[in-house]
């Protein structure tokens, strides 16, 4: 495992970065380093071409509406083909909040303003009344993800689209569907931030494993006492 290197492209880190997104990248970097796994981080912003074969994981964070609009145009024109080619070959994608919304078909931001999406996930988002805010916990494959949500959009999954998990506490995609996030193969979108991965070390390891093309149980075990305490605290905050 120590001979491997995890290669990440952070898309629009200068614009989609308002939800402690750097903490997610730092968590991946540290867990790789502790295992002797190499780590390469590339930043790709507006106007930059993206090589679909050069990265193991693409990461998109959250941003304000104006910045999200700028990124939506670039993502669906300059980078669209490369993003789809990356996902088609099994490359991993993690998108949080605003980035999650851009993985769908479109986001109806306000009357007369619709942001295009890259269409990796079969969903769309509509602006709702008020914001869905608070601590949240969801069940994913029998385990718990805990974090924080703060979004005005309501993300509606198509009939065949798999959610990331079932809401245990909090609002989730729409506040009424009972589901949170979405996934397809190694592509994952979620509203959980705060940031997500330092509160859920097991999920960080799942991402590392999927990006490297191995099983999570093949990764070297780590002493996760502090990480487990952070996870327990996030669960308590969500009432789970």
Characterize the structure shown:
- The chain is an alpha/beta fold and 240 residues long.
- A hairpin with a 2-residue loop joins strand 5 and strand 6.
Question: How many individual domains?
Answer: 1
User: Spans of 5+ residues with little confidence (pLDDT < 50)?
Assistant: none
CATH-assigned fold name:
Rossmann fold
Q: CATH H-level name... which superfamily? A: Class I glutamine amidotransferase (GATase) domain
Counting H and I runs of at least 4 residues, what is the number of helices?
6
Shape: globular
SSE string, helices as H and strands as E: EHEEHHEHEEEEEEEEHH
Largest sheet: 6 strands, mixed
Which terms would index this structure?
single chain, Rossmann fold, six-stranded mixed sheet, 240 residues, globular
Topology:
Elements: E1 5-11, H1 21-34, E2 38-44, E3 57-60, H2 65-77, H3 80-88, E4 92-96, H4 98-102, E5 106-110, E6 113-116, E7 123-140, E8 143-157, E9 165-169, E10 179-180, E11 182-184, E12 187-190, H5 201-212, H6 225-237
Parallel strand pairs: 1-2, 1-3, 3-4, 4-12, 5-7
Antiparallel strand pairs: 5-6, 7-8, 7-9, 9-10, 11-12
In short:
The chain has 240 residues and is an alpha/beta fold. It is 28% helix and 33% strand.
């Amino acid at each position: 495992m120590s001979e491997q290197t995890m290669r990440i492209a952070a898309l629009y880190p200068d614009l989609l970065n308002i939800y402690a997104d750097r903490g997610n990248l730092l968590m991946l970097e540290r867990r790789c380093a502790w295992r002797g796994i190499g780590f390469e981080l590339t930043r790709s912003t507006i106007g930059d071409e993206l090589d679909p074969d050069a990265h193991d994981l693409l990461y998109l964070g959250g941003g304000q509406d104006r910045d999200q609009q700028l990124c939506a145009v670039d993502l669906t024109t300059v980078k669209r083909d490369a993003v789809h080619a990356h996902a088609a070959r099994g490359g991993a994608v993690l998108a949080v909040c605003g980035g999650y919304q851009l993985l769908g078909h479109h986001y109806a931001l306000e009357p007369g303003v619709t942001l295009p999406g890259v269409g990796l996930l079969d969903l769309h988002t509509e602006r709702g009344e008020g914001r869905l805010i608070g601590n949240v916990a969801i069940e994913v494959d029998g385990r718990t993800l805990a974090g924080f949500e703060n979004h005005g959009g309501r993300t509606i999954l198509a009939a065949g689209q798999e959610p990331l998990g079932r809401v245990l506490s909090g609002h989730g995609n729409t506040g009424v569907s009972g589901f949170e996030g979405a996934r397809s193969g190694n592509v994952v979108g979620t509203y959980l931030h705060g940031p997500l991965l330092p509160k859920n070390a097991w999920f960080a390891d799942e991402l590392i494993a999927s990006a490297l093309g191995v099983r999570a149980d093949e990764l070297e075990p780590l002493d996760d006492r502090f990480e487990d305490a952070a996870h327990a605290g996030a669960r308590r905050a969500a009432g789970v």
